[in-house]
Amino acid sequence: MTSTVRESLLIATTPRRAYEAVGDVTRMGRWSPEATGAELRTAGPIGVGSRFRGTNRRGRMTWTTECTVVTADPGREFAFEVRVLGGPVARWGYEFTEEQQGTRVTETWTDRRRGAHGFLIGAVAFLISLAADPRSGGIRDRSAHNREMMRTTLRSLKQHLESFAPSR
């Protein structure tokens, strides 16, 4: 199983505007098929050290994660680390690269599950996926699943950013 997955898409917008959309974690549910939103746990603007509770849904199953912003460089990069039951689960990141036709947005997921805690979280995640859709047999390849979710997220982000404002 791959421990890091990257997907990118060219979007007709500025790096700053793409960053503002992704960096406002409370809006993530607008384009993600699984993340439904976030509740900020720290006051003030979102930046390095900001904490939030991420909310997620797959089928009829819902769950939350505890997240901390680790990179917040407007127009360039935004990333956060995810923890469940006190241990690391993943790091999600977004890079924004200006190109002639717009901005290449690259989304990266890194699996941070390790040891006994990682095994426990992996087992719970599998059971959630099985309960959400028993006919699917559960998510056996987290990297492949997340790659598809990332592609959907980036396409939805592209549609949103290209539909609601001037591109440059």
UniProtKB/TrEMBL annotation:
One family name in Pfam for this protein: Polyketide_cyc2
Name of protein: Polyketide cyclase/dehydrase/lipid transport protein
